[in-house]
Structures are given as C-alpha cells and as structure tokens.
Amino acid sequence: MKLKNIFLSGLSVLALASCSDYLDVEAPSKNELDYVYSDKSEIERSLKGIYAAMLSNDTYGANFLSTFQLNSDVDFGTSSTEYATSTNYKRFDCDADGGHLLNAWTKQYTAIERANIFIDRLLKSPIYEERDYVVDLKHMLGEAKVLRAVFYHDLTWMFGDVPFTFEPSYNLNNPIIPIVDRTEMLKALIDDLIEVAPEMKSITEVGSVERVSQEMAWAMIARLALTAGGYSLRPEGSSFGKMKRPDNYGDFYAIAMEYAEKVIDSNNHHLNKSYSQVFVDECNFIVNNNDDVMFEIPFGSEATGRIGYLHGPKVQDIGGETVHKFGKTSGGATLHPLYRFMFEEGDARREYINQLFYYASNGKPTLNTGRTVYNGKWSKLWNKAGMGAASSEQTGINYPYMRYADVLLMYAEAVNEVENGLGGAHGEKAQAAYQEVRTRAFADNAEKVGSLSGSKEDILKAILDERKFEFAGENMRWRDLVRNNLYNQQIYYTFWRLMKRAQDEDDANTEAVSLFDFGVDGRWNSTNLPVSVYCNADVENTGVAAYTPAQFPNTELNVVKILNPYKRMASNDPALSDGVFKSNADGFFGTWQTGEGDPHGEICYSLYGYIYFNPQEGNTYINENGTYVQCPEPTSAPTVESLPVLRYIMPIPRTVIARSYGAYSNQYGYR
Q: Which residues pair with 403 in a beta bridge?
C-alpha cells in the first residue's frame, strides 16, 4: 500500500532548513544552533524534512523532468523562435537571469542544508550510540547521506563545479562556500556512502522503496562513480569549454562495477513485472518493493508532483473540468517525433511509451499531427479510479529516481570499460544483466533478446541504445550521451533527421544519417515512413480499440486506431477497403513545412543553441564558442572531435554570483 503523505509532515521542520544568504534561501536560524536531538521520534520527523525537500516542482516534482530535461534523440521539446532567450534550456539557450535556475539552485541547497543539519545533530545526539536505537539511527544517517548525494549529484549535472560542504551553515566561519571541482566532490560523496552503506538496512528490512535502502545506497554509489569517471564539459579560457574525463577514470568505473554488482548479488530487486506495469502501478499508487523500482520519490496524493500531468496524452478541459473522471493533462513531456521509428519490431516499450493521439475538450480522441510525440510512461489516464474531472497539475504519482534496470545496464557499461569488452572475469555476468533488461522488453519475442558482441565500442553502443529505449522521460538520455562524449554528435544528427524529413528529400545526406543511425542506407527514406496516416474514421461509434490493454492501459476511453504507425502503406492496401479507416492527409509529417515549403520553425530552431536552419538563406549554422558558423553536412561524416563542443552546462544564477562578493563567476562563455 502506498504510504501517502508520510513525508509531508516533514515540512514542519522548515526551521531546520537554514542556509547562508549567498544561496538565496532562508537566513540561518538564530535559535539553538548547538541543539541536538534528544529522542528518536524527533529524529524521524527531521529526516522526513529532507525527503520533503524533494517534492518541489522547481526540481523533482516537475522541472527536472520537463524544463531541465535537455533535448536529445529521445526527449524533445520544440521551439519556433529564431531569437535567443533566457530560459529555453532544452535547446541550450539561456542566460544567468533565467528564473528557473535560481529556483532550482535554491531548492537543492535548501535540501542539502537540511541534510547537513540533520547529520550534524544526529552525530552529536546523546542517544546516537544507545543500544536500543543504534541500528535504526545508523540507517537514518545513511538515508540522509544518500539523499544529500542525490542533491549534489544533480546540481553538478546542471552547473558543473558547485559550492560544496558537508557542514551546516552554522558551523562555518565564512558563509561563502568555495566552489569545488566536480571530481573531488563526487569522490567525497562516494567515500561518504561507502563508509555508511554497511550500516544500512536492506529493502526487505526497510519495507518500502519510498525510503532509501542499502541497495539504493549501493546503486547511488555506482551512479556517482559513472558520473565521476565519465566525460563532462570543463572550463577552458573564454571558450564554451572542453569535454574531459579524469586521468583516473578507470578507478571510478571499477567502483561502479563493484557496487552495481552488490545490488545484483543481493537478489532483492527483479524485473518480473511487465515494463508498462511498473509505471501503471505508480499511477495507481501501488508500491512494489522487490521489483524494478529501487527508490521512488514519495509525492503526496494530489498535493505534490506533476508526474502524469506532464506525461501521457494531452487531455483538454472545458471551464476547468473534463467530460470524464480523469482530469486535464498538459502532455508537455514530449518525445522526438522520429524516436519511435528507432525501436526494433516487437519491443513492447515502443507502443507503450509513444502515444500518438490526445483527447480534445469534447472527450474525443484526436490524432496528434504535431511535431512531437506524447510520452505515455505515466499518465493520469492510467489511474483506474480517476483523479476527478476538475483535477489538474498535482497528481501525487511517484517518480522512480532509481530503477534496477538502470543498475543492470550501469553494470554492463562499467564491466565493458574496466575489462575492455566482455571477455574478462565479469563478462558473462554483464551479458546476463543486459539480457535481463532485453528479456522484459521482448517478453513476447524471445528470439530478439540477442546478446552483446563485437568490439568494446560496439558493446557500448548496444548498451547505450538499450538505455535509449528504456529510460525515455527519466532525464537520462542526455546525461548518458555526455558521459560518453557523444552528445554534440548525437544532437547534430538529431537535427538532420528532422531537416531531411521536413524537406522530404531522399538524398545523399538522408543516406548518411541513416548510415549513422542504423549502419545501413535507406531507413530514413520517405518510402519507409508513413507520410499518410490511416486512422479510424468513427471511433465514437465503433469503439474500435487501437491497442491492447497492456499498450494503452485505460480501457474506458475510446482511442484512435492508427493502421500504419510505423510503416508506409499503399493506397490500395486491402486493409483500407472496409471503409472504417480514412487517410489523414497531413499525417505526422505534412505539417512540418510552411506554406512556402520551408521547414517549419520548430524544425529550424528547436536546437537553436547549438544548430539551426535559416530558411531565408537556405543555410544551416552551428554554434562554435558563441559564433554561428556554416554547418558541415552529414555526407562529410563529422566526428565528435570535428564538431564544436555542445554547451549543456547552465550558468550559475546571477543573484548567487552577486551575493558571493566576487567569489563565484560564470564560465563556458556565459556573461
């Protein structure tokens, strides 16, 4: 049973969430700075306050899954403006005045301060070492340290090197905390968790994945280590920076391998449920403690978190209410429109994740002819009871911050790096980890599970491809690409995929993109894509179902039946002869061009901060350290090294810089 509102009581400990003025949060409390905890119930309440700090829509409740989920070949938000902005983070276009940045910075450091205060006061408490409490309190210490690591880890992904301390503000002589190199910071976090993890309880003892367990601690160590050992954008003079990884990166991959293996060997998490059921259960407030989810952020029912409002098919309302019991959704967490064509046939994730229609205000399902696809991973529509016709943004659906599938693929990636392929001592186990994820995805197509083979580079590509299809909408894809120094190249080809289809050109550049993506020619040719989409002509009366319940979990609403969602059909195809179907002339591609035949603005400018097309000139430009230069065409097969660096790091908020009295400054070409 879901422990709804269990952590909301932690909001009452806001007085403990003090922090220095430079962080733009509350000033330090003047009361009882030497206070220590005197009883266990007080400690438990304060711990809940750290969990409660995760519930903000400025961070994990919404913006980390929408505003700051950067564009890639998977997650994709469109923009049609040709002008620079302050807040279009998805397309790598922002400045230090972007208000979302300050809000996220403030909320993360508020959470860190809560954790630092909790840890400091717990360790000083006279009951910490008492026999009756020691096991529980040592685990609570571990919970706080893991959550603190989560906050710092996600900060460094956004801002690079950031202010770092384990001390609460009242213990500091100087309120201006020094910025620390991210490798040093991540190493400190890893060491901190390695020390505390042996004293933590397993998930079988904790009893709920809404709390941090020992397995979650191990998994977080593995994630921190991969981040530390991977590539990231580092400052270099006045340029946008340079992609680098530490000299001892292999040590971090070895740590990732060791601790991911601990999770696997514990045998406490599995992939027994179907892929879709994992997320449908979350939409119905069902907590599974021994399956895929290892730690999910516990939002309060219809009180916090926009998971399922941002996701799933858009649902329109009238006057604040829908004509059914499910309520309005925005459908704002969208996917790249060509992502669905990259799946293998038989992959159960494809039909479930890629939702191709929405519900109009009259309740009718309507074909989506836009330039993105809805992400169906979560949705208010999947909640069987319905959240109410007037329900809106706050859903209370939990977000799975760590999944066992992630651990399995992290393990395979780490083994491949450490042992230079899968021929070493851990190769067979890494192969089994990869295949476990594939087995669930191809539950009805076992012959497609396959195996990892080839060179180290081939194996890495297969693992990253699997992550591409597994973690849509979970703020993973762009980080995976950065970690392996592939982001600039992938964004380059992401742009050209759209351009060639918007121009409806089957030329040498189209072939070059197809060769990059699939290793063969022709996959992106117009003859292989459904330019015309045949859909049900009378869904209201016929009620013909487009998907099985496993693919579209809500069986109470009619759906659009699309006859050719993944391949082109001839107009004389016998399947079209029964009169139930009609051709939507616009399809999914017809509206990608303006009336003048140019690519639509959303094709030209959705990646504007790195690459864009100028329809007036007919030229494509790419951003090289702040100057847009002529972009090479795909036929030149540009490499990671030959393409300009992609500035994914965001600027430290200007308010924070001003309050640092000169201690902080922005790099990466930001002003």
A: 293
Q: Which residue has the tokens 């994990």?
A: 60
At 652, the pLDDT band (50, 70, 90 cuts) reads very high
**How does residue 7 score in pLDDT terms, banded at 50, 70 and 90?**
very low
The structure tokens 């601690």 sit at 217
Length of the chain: 671
Query: Tokens 């750290």 appear where?
Result: 50
Q: From CA 626, how far away is CA 630, in angstroms rounded?
A: 13
Q: Return d(Cα 43, Cα 477) in angstroms, integer.
A: 37
Average pLDDT value for residue range 250-276: 98
Encoded tokens for 37: 């905890």
Q: Which run of H or of E encompasses 137?
A: helix 134-159
- Six-digit token pair at 40? 């266990």
Q: What is the pLDDT of residues 119-178, one digit of tens each?
A: 999 999 999 988 878 999 999 999 999 999 999 999 999 999 999 999 999 999 988 999
Of the candidates 485, 48, 13, 65, the one whose C-alpha atom is nearest the C-alpha of residue 244 is: 485
Half-sphere exposure of residue 340, counting CA atoms within 13 Å on the CB side? Answer: 24
Instruction: Tell me the one-letter amino acid at 447.
Output: E
Residue 197, burial from CB neighbour count under 10 angstroms (0-12, 13-18, 19+):
buried
Strands 627-630 and 619-624: antiparallel
Angle between helix axes 427-441 and 404-418 (nearest 10 degrees) is 150
Provide the residue type at 202 as one letter: S
Distance CA 265, CA 261 (A): 6
Helix (H, G, I), strand (E, B) or coil at 330: coil
Q: What is the pTM of this model?
A: 0.94
Helices (H), 231-274: 249-266
Pick the range with the lowest mean pLDDT from 207-211, 275-279, 423-427, 524-528: 524-528
Token code pair at residue 239: 């340029």
pLDDT at 549: 56
